[in-house]
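Predict the 3D structure for this chain.
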Amino acid sequence: MRAIVRAIVICLALVAGAARAAEPAAGAPAQPPRIVVAFANEPHSAPGPAGTTGSRYGGDGYRVGQSAQQQAHRVALAYSLREVASWPIKALAMHCVVYEITDGRRVAEVLAALSKDARVVLAQPLNEFHTLTGAAAPAAPYNDPLYDLQSNLVTLGIARAHARAQGAGVRIALIDTGVDARHPDLAGRIRGTHSFLGKLGTPRAGEPAAPLLRHGTAMAGLIAAVANNHIGIVGIAPQAELEVFEACWQLAPDSDAAACNTFTLARALAAALASGAPLVNLSLAGPSDPLLTALIERGMARGITFVGATGGAGEGFPAAVPGVLAAAASEQPLPAGAFGAPGQHVLTLRPGAQYDFESGASVAAAELTGVIALLMSASSTRLTSGFIASLLGGAATDRSAAISDPPVVDVSAALARLDTVARGGAAGTAHALH
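Done. Predicted structure below.
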């Protein structure tokens, strides 16, 4: 039985080319049904001269014997069949023929008759087979090779939002460590860098800060990594511009941990306010600070939006300052008033043209900053912090307790709310700062 199955497979493979050649063009009449019939290939002709082979074997390979050829011809005449292709199968001593049924009979009827014919070793339909790769997967919306690893973009719905806005025309002040502006995935995204590290801006007074750029580079990549450049990842606002205000220093060469102080942050905040950037990212947290709070309040009075990271209770700056949009990792219960964004194992940039995964509330703050940049670039008016909060979810700043199952910021819903307000005309201007 196994030999017969192998014969079927081999026979079908050998005649496939001829069978395909006979396939009709699109729109042509349907072909007559085809079957496969095998005959024993054991000729009984007289042996040839000494030193020669019989007709079953030839110098160029296995040959069809005279008996098999005769039987194939006689069966074709007897059952109104037309030979399409044939080939001998040496391993099974068979002559395999593909026939078309020319008189309109059903395949089952012809095969039933052939199965009772002593001249026939095997008779079966000419079956069709298909590969199992399935339909092609839809093309990714970006050509960046690491996009498929950016599950945070899927969670936030960024690909759909990018059809509407990508942050073009929005300038973001990034107050952090320095940033590797030469990273290929930040090409053209860094508008400038200003350092405010000095005697009080290092872990040991009087020592210069080492050029360690991990945290700032990671936040910059989350916000504005270039899209569709065949390199790395996609930023949430890939057409936004970043202005870097270096106010923090990295604590160890192989760590993302960094520190800042009142002096360095105050200088950076003052410079950010003077720069005219409408959006400031602060992926950091610490105790309440009157000087820094006063600077943020002055900035908000000028219409600047601030985003800060928060991890929970005991943090007074910047997230606890009224009006600051606080962000926390959505994988954990949200602190009161915070917006949730993915914060665990999120792919981003590393200095030196590298990539790695980052976790924490800093990540959520950078993502929220990128989302707000999309809203700003989609609006014809300058948006206030309060109006942005309403677009993102309404009452985030009014929550009085942590949420055990926190929602994730929905960019598409926020853009839809923005469109609704815009269609309302005057209603939109009541919430927007001109």
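The chain has a mean pLDDT of 82.
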